[in-house]
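Q: My labmate handed me this sequence with no annotations at all. I'd like to see what the chain might look like in three dimensions before we decide whether it's worth expressing. Could you predict it?
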Amino acid sequence: MATEQEPAVQMTLHRFRKEAGSPQSRSLEDLPGSSEAFFLDVRPADEFAAGHLPEARSIPIEELPERLGELPRHKIIIAYCRGPFCTMADEAVQLLKANGFDAVRLEESYLDYKLVNNETWKS
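A: Here is what I predict for the chain of 123 residues:
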């Protein structure tokens, strides 16, 4: 059932991102090194604690507006959440760009990274 509905969901998400003026995204294969990027995990803290990208920082989306001062302005911020059907990273990037940060959304999720690299990162 989910597979049958995936094209419709993708079209809806594409339309949402276009109408919202959503920013560009990056794929796992296109990620810059940690000296150039800051990985921002905007999922709830318990999901971050269960596993996250290496060197990622947890700032749940609902806390982000109050915690912008904790973010570097000299690096590109790569925000991620639960994957391509999650819009928390879109929301984060829109907020970051509105506040002068260079930010993009990661297309994949931590679980995608884990599958590709066969690694688990916990704090």
